[in-house]
């Protein structure tokens, strides 16, 4: 998007590797497949020799186009000599406080490049020689591995309370707390929310600093939740107005799941306390004796006239025996 902003009217084809759809987050797969259908992204045919690199170079060769990539394509130098022509290879990197910066570059030469130029064909990259340490036995670790626990964006209870009161699509007010890699962190009371660049403006800004300053008060829309990290995804209302769906059951799922789990723990304690009370067992035995007594009753008239108080009295006698 930044490249297109700097080069108005230039047609851009975005090529991704064939395995790209299997290496992204599950929540982004639908967006990726939609982009493929709309030709916003192009993937090489399955099993293509050279994978994505060969596909990119074939497109650029046919269209006489420039390539935006930080790769040098060394194994293709013998086949596509135009890679060294001025303006055919462009590199880019994001610069803090500036945004994306693009410059023309020349491919880096190396052993693979020299073999390709010498043969005039596409060659395979040579594997780097193994070091002497690689052939030695695996060392025994002297300390346990560092903790791999995922850092949570918010505390559990404040997050659950926020989810319960703010379904997806709700508007909230927050203060810009800090800049993130590709967005900003917003504080809403005890909750931290994340606003990515794509949810700030259309077209996507180069940097969050172009739109927000630390300490700014602004209104945002709850776009979604990531329960695994207890994170809250936000967006500028006008930008995400058409992309926020109605609240889904999954949005409240974390709170419901934790409440359910807590309820189960409490119920478990109650069950332990209610396990086979002695009084109930005695009561059942008394009822059994009473049933036997009814069967042995000699006269129907006596059983009919027996008042409720006498039945209670019989139960008491049974207990004493």
Folded structure, characterized:
The chain has 321 residues and is an alpha/beta fold. The protein folds into three domains: 2-124, Rossmann fold; 156-261, Nucleic acid-binding proteins (OB fold (Dihydrolipoamide Acetyltransferase, E2P)); 278-320, no CATH class. It has ten helices and ten strands. The chain has helices at residues 2-6, 26-37, 51-63, 111-119, 156-165, 237-240, 253-273, 278-296, 300-305, 308-320, and strands spanning 14-15, 41-42, 67-68, 89-95, 99-104, 171-180, 183-188, 191-196, 217-226, 231-235. α8 (278-296) crosses α10 (308-320). Residues 246-254, 258-306 and 308-321 have low confidence and may be disordered.
> How does CATH name the architecture of the largest domain?
3-Layer(aba) Sandwich
CA radius of gyration:
36 Å
The main sheet comes to: 5 strands, mixed, barrel
Q: List low-confidence stretches.
A: 246-254, 258-306, 308-321
Q: What is the CATH top level name of the largest domain? A: Alpha Beta
What general outline do the C-alpha atoms trace?
A: globular
SSE arrangement, N to C: HEHEHEEEHHEEEEEHHHHH
Tell me the quaternary state: single chain
* Count of helical stretches: 10
Query: Widest sheet: strand order?
Result: 6-7-8-10-9
The CA-CA distance between the termini, in Å, is 91 Å
CATH topology heading of the largest domain:
Rossmann fold
Q: How many separate structural domains?
A: 3
